[in-house]
Amino acid sequence: MTRISVCRIILVASLACIDSRLMAEDGYRLWLRYDRIESVALRTEYASVLKYLVLEKKSPVLNAAENELKIALQGLLGGEPVSVGDIGESGALILGTPSTSPIISSLKLSAELKQLGDEGYYVFSTTIKGKRSVVIAANKDVGVLYGAFHLIRHLLTRQNIQTLAIKSAPRIRHRILNHWDNLDRTVERGYAGFSLWDWHKLPDYIDPRYYDYARANASIGINGSVLTNVNSNAQILTEPYLLKVAALADVFRPYGIRVYLTARFSAPVEIGGLSTADPLDPTVKEWWRKKIDEIYTHVPDFGGFVVKANSEGQPGPQNYERTHADGANVLAEALSAHNGIVMWRAFVYDNKVPEDRAKQAYNEFKPLDGKFNTNVMIQVKNGPIDFQPREPFHPLFGALPGTPINVEFQLTQEYLGFATHLVYLAPLFKECLDADTYVKGKGSFVYKVIDGSLENHALTGMAGVANIGNERNWCGHPFAQSNWFSFGRIAWDPSSSSQAIAEEWIRMTFSNQPEVVKTLAEIMLASREITVKYMTPLGLHHIMGWDHHYGPGPWIKDKPRADWTSVYYHKADSIGIGFDRTKKGSAALDQYAPEVRPTFEALENCPEEYLLWFHHVPWDYKMKSGRTLWEELCHQYHAGADSVKWMQRSWNALEGKIDAERFAHVKSLLDIQSREAVWWRNSCILYFKTFSNMPIPVGLEKPDKPLSYYEKLQFPFAPGIRPKW
Ligand code: BDP
User: Fold this and answer.
1) Are residues 417 and 424 in contact, defined by beta-carbon separation less than 8 angstroms?
2) Would the pLDDT of 384 be above 70?
3) Helix residue spans in 136-208 (DSSP H)
4) Same CATH topology for 174-500 and 533-579+616-711?
5) Which of 80, 198, 312, 455 is catalytic?
């Protein structure tokens, strides 16, 4: 028996034996909590059909689906044995594809399955041999797995199984987590402990947690995992590490997940012993070809590479006077022989400080449109600067019609309060995806660029910078799990609503009680806007603490690069505040389609949430509220911090309706968030007051400490810091 199958048996057995009354609600189970359903009637109804599983042919993926259904049903039905075999006396749950299941084949589903592709599924209620049945049918095994998880979601949210008719297929092909995990197990911008990947003990020791990671991802349709940091280490491409990578790939494969790695551009020099990494040098090309062939001998379904090149000091083709396209294509060519892809990041900024960093990615990539091989996607962050609490959409969306583009969101909350602040990010993802680029007229939404429909690209993707570590509850904050969850759900279907996803997640993770669902959904849906208000209201951005990015730092100046400072971005002076990106300023606005510009170009039209992103605005400018800009800024900071108190009150009112362990955990984190919101508010108001020279409006609480107190705070050991190598 292989190492992996032994582990799997231990894992499944241990999960099946768990008695939920003995288990602490420590968040480990994420949204896959299979506790007994309270209602006897519902249990009986589910059991009558679902406790007979029919799987006519086995495969690693179908077995994973069957195992999951077994564990889920056994738990939900309160320990009733779930049999695997024939249709039971009252009904059955039948799973498979037309080629693995004679029953499913006899149902003649080709019309239904036609539109569902390789990963889609059809889950429906029907009658088979006179017995009530639920069928999970798909074209491929992995579709059956996703269908199984859909059914489980359905049961966890207590919906009926009498009239099931669910057809679903992903709108995006590559739905990928990007782990910024280093080989020493630190996680760049990670706030949930160390890396899950225990490189030292791999490949021999397979942590059972790897299975649970794979299960969680499969349950929300994530089908790729980039194991290593974008600031990458070439060692990962050496044989000892490839064996470790292969062991992880073996665990993930039955769950439909392919592994990817980050490629350090200078690897041919660093580990290959070549004197150059020039992408047009034949020896370099040959080196990558051999290296990539070698990777595929270990991982036959290896997904490909993510590359950060010529950005923040990382090596890249420009070191050799070559373009990003030259660099991407040398890897793409070698990967194409194995169906691998390259996700080449557009997050570039080089050593010459540009007049506006927001413009650089567009300036560098626009001329390269159409020059990339067909298996290259350009991976673009949601906004033009860097994962700020609010940014307008990136001008590259829609600007490269001849090149597939995938979007990169940051799930780890580097700029949104680490894993201490409750911030539900689906509204941020949606804000970007639903923005209209107008590149092909009204309705050219970012999500249409990403799902390929705007320019007819088949290669599509969505990347999420993972917020996962080895903390018991995976993400640090119990609510941070919702950002992993919602990323998967939105990558599957970008039209899903933030509210529907939040409610589904709450029901699965906390409770189906209407009051809990309502209160938590209200908190979650308001949380991102609240955070924007107490951190960066009215379009402010990049004013966080130096280097570690913890807490406020609007005073940061005089650093090695101007665009690493805060003063570069807020430009506060005695006249006003904000970065003028109109024609009078950096003209970054001109990178958007002409139809987009008027909304932002004229000060009077500009939506106030983007005001200081696009304009330098006088302190006494009259805002829509009738207040001056200065007064409005103070009010927004106060509204943000006050709203965290509202979140606390709402949470506290749920005491007794949420298990004690998670209740207390979230309560303490909200206390910290509340304190930190006041910290942001006070320090930013005091700092900007030194420019506005205006009083804090009457009625708003005055800061109890001087600005110098905040400026002096030091956090040498803040988590998630970038490695120095
Ligand atoms: C920035 C992070 C830095 C990352 C960089 C990136 O501070 O640690 O390396 O993004 O995306 O936001 O490459």
Assistant:
1) no
2) yes
3) 141-156
4) no
5) 312
Instruction: For residue 79, give Cα distances in angstroms to 72, 436, 529, 656.
Output: 10, 50, 43, 26
Distance (angstroms) between ligand 1 centre and the Cα of 278 equals: 25
Does the annotation mark 414 as catalytic? yes
DSSP 626: S
Per DSSP, the three-state class of 126 is strand
Q: In CATH, which of 3.30.450.20, 3.30.379.10, 1.50.10.10, 3.30.420.10 is domain 3-168?
A: 3.30.379.10
Homologous superfamily, domain 174-500? Glycosidases (3.20.20.80)
- Dist. CA 394–CA 382, nearest whole Å: 6
CA 675 / ligand 1 centre spacing (Å) = 26
The secondary structure of residue 292, as a DSSP letter, is H
C-beta of residue 162 within 8 angstroms of C-beta of residue 91: no
* Mean pLDDT computed over 580-609: 97
Specify the pairing of strand 121-128 against strand 83-84. Answer: unpaired
Q: Whose CA is nearest to atom 9 of ligand 1?
A: 231
What is the distance in A from the centroid of ligand 1 to the CA of 267?
Answer: 20
> Could you read off the pLDDT of 195-234 as tens digits, one per residue?
999 999 999 999 999 999 999 999 999 999 999 999 999 9
Q: State which ligand 1 atom lies nearest to the alpha carbon of 229.
A: 9
Contacts with 607 (C-beta within 8 Å, 6 or more apart), sequence order: 599, 600
Q: Say what the pLDDT of residue 4 is.
A: 45
Output the CA–CA distances (angstroms, integers) from residue 318 to 278, 288, 321, 432, 607, in the order listed.
9, 18, 5, 30, 38
Q: Is 270 an active-site residue?
A: no
From the CA of 465, give the closest atom in ligand 1: 11
DSSP 165: E
Structural contact between residues 528 and 534, judged by C-beta atoms closer than 8 angstroms: no
576-577 and 224-226 strand pairing: unpaired
pLDDT digits (tens, 9 = 90+) for 295-322: 999 999 999 999 999 998 899 999 999 9
Judged against a pLDDT cut of 60, whether residue 10 lies above it is answered with no
Judge whether residue 19 has pLDDT over 60.
no
CATH 3.90.1330.10 fits domain 533-579+616-711: yes
Locate the DSSP E strands across 86-240: 91-96, 121-128, 131-137, 165-168, 174-178, 224-226
Selection from 364, 355, 352 nearest residue 317 by Cα: 364
Nearest CA to ligand 1 atom 12: 386
Does the active-site annotation cover 312? yes
Atom index in ligand 1 nearest the CA of residue 308 equals: 13
Query: Quick check: 359 and 384 in contact, CB under 8 A?
Result: yes
> What are the tokens at 385?
């600067």
**Residue whose CA is at the smallest distance from ligand 1 atom 1:** 386
Max alpha carbon distance in the chain (Å)? 81
The half-sphere exposure of 197 on its side-chain side, counting CA atoms within 13 A, is 27
Residues with CB under 6 A from ligand 1: 188-189, 230-231, 308, 312, 347, 386-387, 414, 722
| Angstrom distance (rounded) from CA 254 to CA 285 | 33
State the DSSP H helix or E strand holding residue 686, giving kind and residue range, or none if neither: helix 660-692
Distance CA 377, CA 400 (A): 11
Distance 133 CA to ligand 1 centre (A): 50
- Whether 72 contacts 155, CB under 8 Å: yes
Q: At what angle do helices 60-76 and 3-17 cross, to 10 degrees?
A: 10
Domain range list for the chain: 3-168, 174-500, 533-579+616-711
What residue owns the CA closest to ligand 1's atom 11?
347
Containing 577, the helix (H) or strand (E) segment is strand 576-577
